[in-house]
Amino acid sequence: MKLLSVGVVFVLVPALLPALDPLSASLFMGGAAITWQLFSSHSWLKCRLLECCNAKDTLNFSVVKTDLERKVFGQHLAVQLILIALSTNIHSKRPKKPLVMSFHGWTGTGKTFVSSIIAENLYQPSTSRRRFVHHFDTALHFSHASHVHLYKEQLQDWIRGNVSACPRSLFIFSEMDQMPHGLIDSITPFLGYHEEMDGVYYGKAIFIFLNNAGGDKITEIALDYWRSLKGREDIPVKELQHLLSKEIFSNTNSGFFQSQLIQKNLIDYFIPFLPLEYEHVKQCVREELRAQGHPEDEDLITEIALAMTDYPSEERLYSSKGCKTVASRVTLST
Ligand SMILES: Nc1ncnc2c1ncn2[C@@H]1O[C@H](COP(=O)(O)OP(=O)(O)OP(=O)(O)O)[C@@H](O)[C@H]1O
Ligand SMILES: *[C@@H]1O[C@H](CO)[C@@H](O)[C@H](O)[C@H]1NC(C)=O
Ligand SMILES: *[C@@H]1O[C@H](CO)[C@@H](O)[C@H](O)[C@H]1NC(C)=O
Ligand SMILES: [Mg+2]
């Protein structure tokens, strides 16, 4: 762009100047100077058109709150924590470190669903998501344990490159449990407390890790509460967070096994996704029927929810697949 505008000025100016009176000529030069200004580095227009989405990160907190509270079932602990986390980072002028959250829970409990609700709300819908949401799928991006060295460099380059173009970037790492040990530690430098690193400021970036590790622990605790006749609302979230961090640090099947990110306390929030109960699965089925444009058939809703709540085998309290297979079950039965 720079070269192009310089080129235009040099070609056009000598050709046109003789034909213009002094006033027009100076106006023309002024215009050229402004054009030059606009396209030189860090100019507003260049940002708008070419590189970054620094236009405005417009996380509308009340919209995210309503969205999460209305669309996500049975995850009051997670929703409550995520809202605290987001508001702390978003409402701070210049956060000291990026926001780092690690989601834990059984399959189908809403981890991916919640991260896409956050992604949808970070910018105006017109902003292309590809610019600020970066999704790393372990199975897809980091599948060969022997290439860890290469992945480490690549990951650092991507994060540095993307955050410098777009400070409010969202990085989602899914299937953390399959992440080769040690790989995630390569991003340690970006998650810490720094003003800037090599001229890049990371405080507005958001990192989300999705894990199944820790899910069994969460279920165990929820079940204990249920057995002692206490509600899932009463589970103390502080205690759960502590247990989760301990669990994934020592679990060899976790991507955070002996990870520096945990040792150095760089993960700000461990977010528990509770196993879903019969009532929550019913809500998912009802929502799916609505989405597919079918009437809310109560018998069908009950039938699917009953079939899915299968754990533990005696009490059949939770759905071991969460709401994950609801959509296909609805498709098959309607
Ligand atoms: N708590 C929930 N509230 C509402 N819908 C849910 C919830 N959990 C899951 N769903 C529905 O089920 C689908 C699958 O859930 P999702 O992909 O978020 O699970 P996940 O926790 O990421 O599972 P996995 O660990 O297998 O990746 C979602 O797209 C959503 O439609
Ligand atoms: C957030 O969205 C609500 C509802 O669309 C709107 O009334 C409110 O003005 C918005 N707030 C900001 C800060 O944009
Ligand atoms: C940003 O991340 C994506 C992966 O989501 C990568 O392909 C791209 O090269 C990165 N951009 C920069 C400028 O590093
Ligand atoms: Mg998922």
Automatic annotation (TrEMBL):
Keyword Protein biosynthesis: no
GO CC list: cytoplasmic vesicle membrane; endoplasmic reticulum lumen; growth cone; nuclear membrane; synapse
Swiss-Prot/TrEMBL keywords: ATP-binding, Cell projection, Cytoplasmic vesicle, Endoplasmic reticulum, Glycoprotein, Hydrolase, Membrane, Nucleotide-binding, Nucleus, Signal, Synapse
Subcellular location(s) per record: Cell projection, Growth cone; Cytoplasmic vesicle membrane; Endoplasmic reticulum lumen; Nucleus membrane
Residue numbers binding ATP: G105, W106, T107, G108, T109, G110, K111, T112
Gene Ontology process terms (BP): nuclear membrane organization; protein localization to nucleus
Coiled coil: none
GO molecular function: ATP binding; ATP hydrolysis activity; kinesin binding
One Pfam family cited in the UniProt record for this chain: Torsin
Annotated signal peptide: 1-19
All residue ranges annotated as the Torsin-1A C-terminal domain in the record: 276-330
Superkingdom, taxonomy of origin: Eukaryota
Membrane topology type: Peripheral membrane protein
Main location: other
Catalytic activity: ATP + H2O = ADP + phosphate + H(+)
Similarity annotation: Belongs to the ClpA/ClpB family. Torsin subfamily.
Subunit structure: Homohexamer. Interacts with TOR1B; the interaction may be specific of neural tissues. Interacts (ATP-bound) with TOR1AIP1 and TOR1AIP2; the interactions induce ATPase activity. Interacts with KLHL14; preferentially when ATP-free. Interacts with KLC1 (via TPR repeats); the interaction associates TOR1A with the kinesin oligomeric complex. Interacts with COPS4; the interaction associates TOR1A with the CSN complex. Interacts with SNAPIN; the interaction is direct and associates SNAPIN with the CSN complex. Interacts with STON2.
Protein name as annotated: Torsin
